[in-house]
Amino acid sequence: MNAATVLAAARETRHLEGLDCSGMDFSGQELRGVVFERVCLDRTRFENADLLGACLSHCSAAGAAFTAARLEQACMRNVNLTEAGFRGCRARLASWRNVACDRADFSRADLERAVLQDCSLAGVRFPGANLHRASLLSMDCTKIVLQDTNLSMALLNGSDFSDTAFPGCDVRKAMFADARLDRVDLMGQDITQCDLSRASLLEADLRGSSGRWVRFCAADLQGARLAGARLLAVDFTQARLNRADFVRTELEASCFREADCTQTVFHHAGLQYADFSLAVLREADFSGARLSMANLHRSEQTGALWNGADTATVRRTDQRLAAAETWQPNP
What tens digit of pLDDT does each residue of 129-168 get? Predict the structure, then answer.
């Protein structure tokens, strides 16, 4: 069976099953809505092909070329796409599940609002790709390559990005809740409105980053570096900030309520209107920090350093409020 015969069958029935199409050339062909079931497509060429709404199920397409192909709303289930090429393809609203994409190339691909679930992404390349509002939930992303990638508003909850760099990427409003971001490089990034709630950011590098209304609620930032960052109205409620570096970081109106700031360094940080109520500040270093109108209500300050800090208008523990907060009914 040759490519012409397969194309004729595809256009007549829109369903191909159990065929060996390896190495065939379907470049530029119209294959909208075609169902490929248990078809071998290894090294098959789909360059500039129209696969809008197509479905690949239990297929092997290792090394296949989808360069500049149309894959919008395409559905893939249990497909081997190892080392496949997707450069410049259009795959908005695509849905892929249990797909092996190891070492695939998605350079400049458009994956806006695509959903990838239970996929293998080892060595996958996304330089210049558009993943705006895409969903990659609970995925192992530790070996992907990102460069100038658009991850704005992407849903990345529970995924593992440990040791990953994000050079030139747009991560504004990205959702990283419960994700692993240990030792990631987000230096200089705009992280405005990112949700990093309960994420692990051990020794993460966020030096020089910027953003407003970022959520680090209950996140683990032990040993993280945020020196020189400008993060306004950020929420660190119940975060673990032990030994984190906030030297010369602007944190105006940020919330550290119930956070653990043991041995955290706030040298010359801007902490105007910051809320440290019920926070643990043991051995924290606030030398030279600006703390005008900061709230230290019921914070634990054993061994904290305040040399040269502006504490003239700091709000100390409100005794009446403390009494109400700790009130217990009579036995």
Answer: 999 999 999 999 999 999 999 999 999 999 999 999 999 9
- Are the folds of 13-150 and 154-331 the same? yes
Q: Is the pLDDT of residue 57 over 80?
A: yes
Helix (H) or strand (E) holding 12: helix 3-13
Q: What is the CA radius of gyration of the chain?
A: 26
Tokens (6 digits) for 14: 């829109």
C-alpha angle with apex 15: 14 to 19, nearest 5 degrees? 130
pTM to 2 decimal places: 0.92
Collapsing DSSP to helix, strand or coil, 240 comes out as strand
CATH class of 154-331: mainly beta
Instruction: Return the CATH class of domain 13-150.
Output: mainly beta
Continuous segment of H or E residues that includes residue 320: helix 319-325
Residue spans per domain, the chain = 13-150, 154-331
Q: How many CB atoms sit inside 10 A of residue 305's CB?
A: 17
For residue 280, give the nearest of 318, 306, 314, 242 by alpha carbon: 242
Length of the chain: 331
